[in-house]
Amino acid sequence: MTTGKGPIYDPGGDWTLPGPDGVPVPGSYGGGDGGAGFAYDEETLHELVREWNDLANEFRDDRNRAQLIAQAQAPGLEYASEGNAEQIRNSGLALLATLDERERYCRGMAKKFEAALGRYATVEAAHDSEIKQTGGTL
Question: How far apart are the first and last CA of the chain?
Fold first, then answer.
């Protein structure tokens, strides 16, 4: 399905990636009409917001579990045990930072789609008003 601005993204659709020459084909990133990006319908925008927030929640949950790694204690008091525990804690801290970054990214993407929903609603309201002014109905 396409609109005047490009194809509408269908998460269940069969999308073809750009060919070996790097030229986008219809239905892939960039669309087939020379325009960049995709056009989304309202239902798809809601679904994308939900999916990005769900993914962010998974990263948050993983972050909670990674706290255990970042708090690892040595099994004994000798130097080797403490050195090993320190390496595990450092790894856990790096994991926490990465998961935090991923969660923030996903929340940011969800906010972008929420903003698009706001623009969508504004355009719909304007078109509705325009149609009513001409005596039409939706």
Answer: 22
